[in-house]
Amino acid sequence: GDSVVQTEGQVLPSEGDSLIVNCSYETTQYPSLFWYVQYPGEGPQLHLKAMKANDKGRNKGFEAMYRKETTSFHLEKDSVQESDSAVYFCALSECDAGNMLTFGGGTRLMVKP
Amino acid sequence: EPEVTQTPSHQVTQMGQEVILRCVPISNHLYFYWYRQILGQKVEFLVSFYNNEISEKSEIFDDQFSVERPDGSNFTLKIRSTKLEDSAMYFCASRTGNTGELFFGEGSRLTVL
């Protein structure tokens, strides 16, 4: 079955640091790829997406490139801010699986002021 | 801004009791989903629902679970006889079409004692 593996646990950069949160996926199909963000007390919300290979998703200074050759969708930002602190989930969906989302385990980003 | 709403926000129940979690999806959405998140773990797909029937379900969604859209607005998840391991945050989600953005509610926390 499909699977998504991402950077585990917490990431603790300081404000202004660059960020990479790794995401690798495994599937037999051609998925769409997503990053969802979850703030305390809220449900996940779409952060950015890429629908096919070589697409780049962008939002609020974050970027992720859909790399089919390495089956990766790493989340990157040049300069994080304290307000970026949240839990980030990498996810994939496939058209022939009802477009249900398969999530990674989540990465807690805590940006130090 | 339209949103997915869920009730109750928190329910505590005894093992073996029936629980119904309610969701009001965004009004023009046609595809409905339940996901769950055990504390500290990944978000897991339970079931998808379209055109008044289940379209996909996961291994988690066994005979103890059922979903219903009784009145054209509410979308409910019923757990017939709760177990300790059903304790989790349950998220309802909806989208307009099969490939549109998935919108999540804020979740219903279920605690089974």
Radius of gyration computed on alpha carbons of chain A: 13 Å
The whole-number mean of residue pLDDT values of chain A reads 92
Structural class of chain B: mainly beta
Please give the count of helices of chain A.
0
Question: How many β-strand stretches of chain B?
Answer: 11
Poorly predicted tracts of residues of chain B: none
* Mean of pLDDT of chain B: 92
Description:
The complex is a heterodimer of chains A (113) and B (113). Chain A is mostly beta strands. Chain A has no helices and twelve strands. Chain A has strands at 3-6, 10-11, 19-21, 23-26, 32-38, 45-50, 56-59, 62-65, 75-77, 86-93, 101-103, 107-109. In chain A, strands 2, 5, 6, 10, 11 and 12 form a six-stranded mixed β-sheet that branches. In chain A, strand 7 and strand 8 form a beta hairpin. Chain A is globular. The N and C termini of chain A lie far apart (40 Å). Chain B is built from no helices and eleven strands. The termini of chain B are far apart. Chain B has 113 residues and is mainly β. In chain B, strands 2, 4, 5, 6, 9, 10 and 11 form a seven-stranded mixed β-sheet that branches. A four-stranded antiparallel β-sheet of chain B has the order 1-3-8-7, with no helix packed on it. Chain B has strands at residues 5-7, 10-13, 19-24, 31-37, 43-50, 53-57, 65-68, 75-79, 88-95, 103-104, 108-112. At the A-B interface, strand 6 and strand 11 of A face strand 4, strand 5 and strand 10 of B.
